[in-house]
Design brief:
Elements lengths: L29 E2 L2 H6 L6 E3 L20 E3 L20 E3 L20 E3 L8 H8 L7 E3 L20 E3 L20 E3 L8 H9 L6 E3 L20 E3 L20 E3 L9 H4 L7 E3 L5
Parallel strand pairs: 1-2, 2-3, 3-4, 4-5, 5-6, 6-7, 7-8, 8-9, 9-10, 10-11, 11-12
């Protein structure tokens, strides 16, 4: 199972995995076989069918109408059947590492879906995909990592409830202007993208007032741009695996910064002696601290 676990969400437990103390039933069993799950099709909520070599999804899958969690990652799927609309209780769907090109309009029936992983589907039609996802009222987390995206469509703003977006492993140089319309966005990943120009995107990122956590890791950054100080709303900043040798004094203008991860950068060991940040800010200089 691939997850995008942000610093902010590290302590969050997926709600449907927890049972009240006085519940009569135990935590739902995790099934890894469609045949076994089908035998309890009225009650099964958790199914992992990753790495099964599937090129198509069987009709029997869509009779598991109580599913909350479904992992179909690392198969050879090129399409999702129209019957997906039957799984109306889905909250968490993993479609990572397939060969998907589009999503059916019937996806709009997944009105409870909160987390969707579409990462590493390199032939995905991003425009069509976002048009479909705009119909999902509960979608909070979306991963589009590794989808060969060079331009993010402005229609991303139509997915109003988004709180976390993962754009890692793409070819994105600039973020769309309408990203600022996502008033609930808290966490943004733009990792492993040598095309991304942080300096030119800071002003736009600064306008996303709800954003608290920013990941620009392994992006080949040689320096922290002086306008970093505009990101006054950011509390957690991850710049792991870049080529940063010094911090500009303007970073001290990030008044809400609480945690800065500079692991795997060629920074001098005496950074703490000359730093311009508030002493309360936690700085990680290596994975071991």
């Amino acid at each position: 199972m691939r997850t995008t676990l942000s610093f902010l969400s590290a302590l969050i437990v997926i709600p449907f995995l927890v049972c009240p103390a006085n519940a009569q039933t135990s935590v739902s069993k995790e099934f890894k076989s469609l045949q076994e799950a089908y035998e309890q099709r009225e009650s099964v909520t958790w199914l992992d069918l990753s790495r099964k070599g599937m090129t198509a999804l069987p009709d029997s899958l869509f009779e598991l109408v109580s599913l909350h969690y479904l992992d179909l990652s690392r198969n050879q799927l090129t399409s999702i059947p129209l019957q997906i609309k039957k799984l109306t209780k889905l909250k968490y769907l993993v479609l990572s590492h397939n060969q998907l090109k589009t999503l059916p309009s019937e996806f709009k029936g997944l009105t409870l879906l909160q987390s969707l992983y579409l990462d590493h589907n390199p032939n995905l039609d991003i425009n069509q995909t976002l048009q479909v996802l705009a119909n999902l009222p509960a979608l909070k987390m979306l991963s589009l990592a590794g989808d060969n995206i060079s331009v993010v469509p402005q229609s991303i703003a139509k997915i109003k409830q988004l709180e976390t977006i993962d754009f890692s492993d793409n070819l994105i140089s600039a973020l769309p202007d309408r990203l600022t319309e996502l008033k609930r966005l808290k966490v943004l990943y733009i990792n492993n993208d040598a095309y991304f120009n942080l300096e030119q995107n800071i002003r736009l990122i600064a306008q996303i007032k709800s954003l608290k956590e920013l990941h620009v890791e392994n992006d080949g950054l040689t320096q922290v741009p002086a306008n970093i100080g505009e990101l006054k709303q950011i509390e957690y900043l991850f710049m792991v695996g870049n080529k940063i040798k010094a911090l500009p004094p303007e970073i001290g203008q990030m008044k809400h910064l609480r945690f800065l991860d500079l692991s795997e950068n060629p920074l001098p060991p005496l950074l703490y002696d000359e730093r311009v940040l508030d002493p309360k800010v936690i700085i990680r200089l290596s994975k071991g601290n």
